[in-house]
Amino acid sequence: MLQLFLCEPTWCDVNGKDESCTRRISLLDKLESAIWSLMQSGGRSEARLWLCKSLSGIRSISSLRQRDLFVRLLRSMPNKKQLASQLLQLIFEKQPKKVGPIIAKKSHRLENFFKGNSRRIMQWFSNFSGAGDVEHGKGAKALSQFAFVNRDICWEELEWKGKHGQSPAMVATKPHYFLDLDVQQTVENFIEYVPEFWSSHEFSESLKDGNILLVDPKYFVNLFTDLMYEEELEDIWEVIEEFLEEQSFSFLCHRLLMILEEQDFCYFLDLLPRYLKRKSESVGFDNATDWFDIVLLEFCGSHNLDQLLLLNAVTNQHRQLLRLVQEEGSEEDREEIKHLVLELCTSSSSTNDLEPIMAEGLKMKQLKLVTRLGVQSWAIYFRLMDEFISLESWEPLFISNGIKFRKSDKYTFLRHDELSEDCVSDNDRRSSVSLKLKKQRKHRKKRKRNSDPDESYENDKVDYDLSNNMLDFQPNASDWLLSTDGFSTAWSSADLPEHLSNHCFITWLKWIYGKPKKVS
């Protein structure tokens, strides 16, 4: 029978490693080596992705701390231009109005943005309106307003498509004449002969909403990256800090961490523990994220990256790691892992075979100990997924490992022609439910007499569907309520392997972190 090692250690008479302890450590290390070999075969990129996903689930970091964390990363040397580019793209997508005022202050720099680029010119300045009730677009409005206000210095630079030009008085009474303007040639004339336009109030105002970013986002990413690192412009750093504070830590991790080079990712891991909230000495381990926070606080850093990648895979990515073994591993790899799992999950002893390993690790609480326990928990997951398929196999497992359980009383809809024999023994409950349904139908029929014809027709359709489908309730016999979580969740066979392996791992951590460092 599969051993879950849930018998709490006595911590007595544990004097170093015995033969069984040495053998179990050897098996754990062999399984760890086999898993790591498969993870490295993909260039570690998938393992990095898994770790980033787990990091995004951290909940113990405040918005101010996450801002400071990413700002410190951005300001580190050498310059993180790739990271800054990705972050600026996110700001452009989500909050373009934040950077619009900065572009407006630097409007004179956009003269070169339009110079010699007809596509940009036409996209921004050609949106004149022909209808009286509709305003010109932002660029067109800036061009027309500046031309009227400064007609004495620039009107002759306006190029018209007709045989002759238009006078200011004529265009003022008929603004739709601007549709005859040769926009491209006019803007090129302004670039050549009217430099005042590019720093004017009219042009600056047209940029404040940030819509100019849509014309060429890549150009503006490069521009703002230069403003950040070459000119140290505080305005853009303030926008970045505000954005980093407003977004969720999960969002930032998902969108930023995967693009980091490994050296920068390691630096992020080195910084991270400084910004996590410190937990009290009495650790609760109330959920799966608690233990991960503690591991990050104690062991996070570039020098432990490989160990963190492995530990995260065996404890947070059960299904993904199993898929990797099944799809990427050779037949020989799979057989070796299956053999090691079988050895690690079988015990003839009534005591906890992990006790000597935990007792040895208590002296220093090293990351290696936590990793070995994580590997053991994944071995349990593998075995449960591989062999515990039938419903009948679960109850003996609960009993042999001291897990109290009861069948879930959750009910599911079922047709009468699909009723199973298991349902017959629960007639009383079904009768009660059926009676409630009959009362509801009777109430609807009574209500129909006082309703209008259309509503009556709709209600008839509902009653017909219910009677035709002959819906009923059946206890969900494949779900269990377990003492592992205080009987609070109904676990199906599909979810039990992950829940039980997580429960084992968290339980072991409670034991080793709840005991003093020295063992008598």
What do these coordinates show?
The protein is mainly alpha-helical and 520 residues long. It has three domains: 19-60 and 276-387, no CATH class; 63-255, no CATH class; 411-475. Helices cover 60% and strands 3% of the residues. It is built from 27 helices and five strands. It has helices at 19-41, 45-55, 63-75, 81-94, 96-105, 111-114, 118-125, 138-149, 151-154, 168-173, 183-193, 201-207, 217-229, 234-246, 249-256, 262-271, 288-299, 305-316, 318-328, 331-344, 355-361, 367-387, 394-400, 421-424, 427-448, 453-469, 496-513, and strands at 405-407, 411-415, 471-475, 480-482, 490-491. The strands form two sheets. It has a three-stranded antiparallel sheet, with no helix packed on it. A two-stranded antiparallel sheet has the order 2-3. Helix 2 packs across helix 18 (305-316), helix 3 crosses helix 14 and helix 20 (331-344) packs across helix 22. The protein is elongated and about 100 Å long. The two termini are 32 Å apart.
